[in-house]
Every structure is written in C-alpha cells, then in structure tokens.
Amino acid sequence: MTDMRILVLVVLLGLTACGSAGASATRSSPSASASNATTPSGASPTTAINCSTTTSGALTVLARNLVYDVSDPVHPRLVCRGSNTQIQLAGRTSIAYVTAKNGKALVMRRELATGAETLAGNLPFDPRNGFATWTPDGLLEAYAADQNIHLWSGGADHVLYSIPPFFGGFESRWSSPRGIAAFSPNGTYLAFADPVDTSSQNLRIFSIGDRRQLLAVGIGWALGGRWLPGDRFVSAGNSVMQWSPSGGAHSLRSDRWFDPAGSADGNWLAATVVSSTSVPHVLVVTFDGTKSFSTQLGSSPSFVSATIFWYAEEKACGSTCAADPTLPDGVVRAFDVLSGKDAAVQFAAGEQPGAST
C-alpha cells in the first residue's frame, strides 16, 4: 500500500508551501501497484542542501525543497535548494530538514543568518520513503506503515489506528486523493487521513498529549487540509469542513476543493476548484465567505504573505495531457487579494522551481 501512497505524492507534489501549520503531505502536494506492508526502515536517498545566508524573516518553502525570500513576492530570491530532503521553516530565520545517517532519519536545524547547524532530533520513519509528517524540532512524527497509522511522541512509537488495504490506481490529477497529515502549529493536535483510506472514518483528529481521538469522520477522498490560527482545521473532501476543539466539526462549503491553503492570519482561504470538464482555477475567499476571487487557469495556491498567494499557471494541452485537459506551464503567478492584481513571478535565472542546480 505504501507504494500507492508514494505514487500519489509524486504525481501531486507541486507548488505546495510548507510551514509550522503542517502541509497536508501531498503532497501536498500534493502518488501503481499496492503492497500490503512496509517497514520504517529502508534505503534513504542522499541529501544535498545549499543555502545562502539571510536575515530576512519573509521566507516560504516551496515543493518541500526550495526556500525563497519573498520580501518582494513578485521578485523573490532563492535562499535554499535541497535534493532528496524535506524542508520546513523552524523560526523566523531558521529551517529544519530531513536527512539520514547510519540508516536513521535525522532532523537537522540550520540557522540561515549564520549557517550553523545542529541536530534537532531523530525520527523512527524516514518521511521521504512514504506518507508522513513531522515537526521541525524532531519531537513528533505521524506516518503510515503496515496498514497502521503511527504517532511518534514522547520518545515512543504508538499505533493510533489501522486502515483497510487498497488496490487500484488513478488516471487524473482531479480523481487522485492527496491525503492529510498535519500537526497543529503548537503541536497539540494531529489531523490525519491516509490518501488511500476510503473508510467511513478516514479523517481523524487526535490530541497529542493523551493520544485521544477527537474526531473520526468520512470525507470521501481526502483532498488536503490546513491548520489555521485558533487550532481550527479546514479539510477538503466531498465538501469543505472545519473542526475546532470548542466548536467540533461543521460544514463550511458544499463545493469540492483541492489542496486548500490559508493565510497566516486565518482570514483568507484558497484552493484549486475544477470545472465539470476538469479545467482548474484557484478560488480564494475570506473565511467568513463575504469576498471571493477566481484566477485564470491555475492550481496549487500557497500563501507567501497575509494577502498574497502564489499559484501554478496552467494551459490547455490537448492530446498531450492524457487524462487532464490542462497542465502547469512552468509559470508561477502572484495574486494580491487586496487589490486583485495577478502578476507573473519573476525569478532570477536558475532560481525558478524546477530549474536544475
């Protein structure tokens, strides 16, 4: 089954930003055969990471392996490029990334102002080898293995629940699940939905301290999720739902969203919305639903500031697209929700996503 999870992640990983809110491990972005079991051990790829020093606190992580200074969101500067790793922000001018040594997965912390590195912690499961999420301090990890969902906390591994086996495949990006794996920013809660779990209780939320299950509900294919301030979690599946410790779960919207993103202040939500003919665009709305914008052909939004999000421009491609009528064309766009301005992001030569090192 883990082979299918990895295939889902590989196919869908794209313009997905990560941070303390916990990306929905699609992966984001947000993956064909399926095996019934895997183990936390396995061959780990060699990690390489190159960073320039910076004191900028306006940083964003793209596709889990690129860090940009977005002080000017239309003219960003590449700060770090990694290969065979996953990167998260670990503070205003710090990052954490995954590597391996002697067969063990490690979380390293790098101070971008000085270049100094320290070991943050060890992980029981290498998140590069399957469906998992982890915290930048290396103290928490949630992952799927052996048809079980595990939580690493307090220096011990715990099985939270089991999921049924899955056999099958997916043709289109818009018929493929993303899954959800996200710790709340303060590390108090975990939201998890394995990408190939189709059970009637596939989205679950747990309290980390006592591993108590707070929510178990079916959402159809898990299409992503995002933690917002106030320990609010927004999930996408057959519809859009919000959960909070005080208010429980309730419906936010009836439409089908892919890869929802939220501004750091929680005032704006953005997601890919697909037409009946599988043509995608980005919908952005205020949390209270009083304002909304739609972009041109595009997908995979990620906020780089409180009011600006990046998204992948798409174009029609006819028979070369196989199951989908559009594909990303390599252009990243910046949309300002205050002005409605939509501009192509201007990367320096060799710094755009997908450029070779």
What are the salient characteristics of this protein?
Methylamine Dehydrogenase, Chain H, 5-stranded antiparallel beta sheet, single chain, mainly beta, 7-stranded antiparallel beta sheet, disordered N terminus, 1 helix
Description:
This protein is mainly beta. It has one domain (2-41, 53-344): Methylamine Dehydrogenase, Chain H, CATH 2.130.10. It is built from one helix and 28 strands. Strands 22-23-24-25-26-27-28 form a seven-stranded antiparallel beta sheet, with no helix packed on it. A hairpin with a 5-residue loop joins strand 23 and strand 24 (280-286). Mean pLDDT is 88; it is low at 1-13 and 18-41.
Short description:
This protein has 357 residues and is mainly beta.
The counted number of beta strands is 28
Question: What letter string, H or E per element, gives the SSE order?
Answer: HEEEEEEEEEEEEEEEEEEEEEEEEEEEE
Q: How many distinct domains?
A: 1
Query: Could you tell me the strand content as a percent range?
Result: over 45%
| Spatial sequence of strands, sheet with the most strands | 22-23-24-25-26-27-28
Instruction: Using the CA coordinates, give the radius of gyration.
Output: 19 Å
User: What's the CATH superfamily, by name?
Assistant: YVTN repeat-like/Quinoprotein amine dehydrogenase
Task: Give the CATH level 1 class.
Answer: Mainly Beta
CATH topology: the name is: Methylamine Dehydrogenase, Chain H
Which ranges are low-confidence, i.e. pLDDT below 50, for 5 or more consecutive residues? 1-13, 18-41
The separation of the N and C termini measures: 33 Å
The dominant shape is: globular
Helicity range? under 10%
Rounded average pLDDT = 88
DSSP summary: helix tally = 1
Structural class: mainly beta
CATH architecture: 7 Propeller
The largest pleated sheet is described as: 7 strands, antiparallel
